[in-house]
Amino acid sequence: MLTDVGTRVTGKAEPVVDNYSAEDLAKAGRFKQIRMVAKLVNEQNRRAMPIIFGSAVLVIAVFVLLGLLVGPAFLFIPLGVILGVMTAMILFGRFAQQAQYSAIDGQLGAAAAVLQSMRGDWTVTPAVAGNRTMDVVHRAVGKPGVVLVGEGVPARVASLLAAERKKTERVAHGVPIHEFQAGSGEGQVPVSKLQRKITMLPRTLRPAAVSDLNYRLKALAPTMQMPKGPMPKGARMPKMPKQQR
Q1: For the purposes of burial, counting CB atoms within 10 Å of the CB of 156, is it exposed (0-12), middle (13-18) or buried (19 or more)?
Q2: Which of 50, 73, 104 is the last residue of a domain?
Q3: Model confidence over 19-59: pLDDT tens digits?
Q4: Alpha carbon of 5 to those of 27, 92, 122, 196, 219: distances in Å?
Q5: Residue 58, SS3 per DSSP
Q6: Cβ of 174: how many Cβ atoms within 10 Å?
Q7: Rounded to two decimals, what is the model's pTM?
Q8: Number of domains, the chain
Q9: Residue 63's domain spans which residues?
Q10: Are residues 34 and 73 in the same domain?
């Protein structure tokens, strides 16, 4: 889920874990990928791995004792091993997600990475609006309606969100429009809680209405502005983002 925030938010973000790029992860085997993620988890939280292994061992030990004391052992012991491994996997996934959020928190493009990793029928368009100081607004469309997420300096992001909301209302008549600012300041939503905040929104649209809304929103041109000054030598013009399912 992690995103290389060094890439422009106007382009497709490339997943990265710690210092490993998406290409490195793709080439790595399953166990090597797990080691990479475990390294990141351990760097972010030194207590995570002991908690994971300790919980698995505890679950297995409880079922082994039940098998020896209550019986039958041939039933309880394999069941304990399975449940112990499942417990370790669930905890590892949770700690890995927390580590990923911590790694990108406060960096440009973090909110876009969270939106693009959401499960469900969402259409995410990064950087539908922005300014020269790299304050940006991202858009996600789903059954709750239109979700606008801004990241950057709060005062400037607030004006961007207001302008994007007004523009969206011209084509999304009567559709709920939700606004969030990603960040750690007052009135903002931390990156680690952004996905949960959005997925908890009430579902008000049917799939057909969502498809029709996406079709109408395609007519809205992004309002990203180019930075002032001459283009650096060898620099390429960034491509506008494509909507992603």
Answers
A1: middle
A2: 104
A3: 554 455 555 567 787 888 888 888 888 899 999 999 999 99
A4: 21, 24, 22, 21, 28
A5: helix
A6: 7
A7: 0.66
A8: 2
A9: 16-104
A10: yes
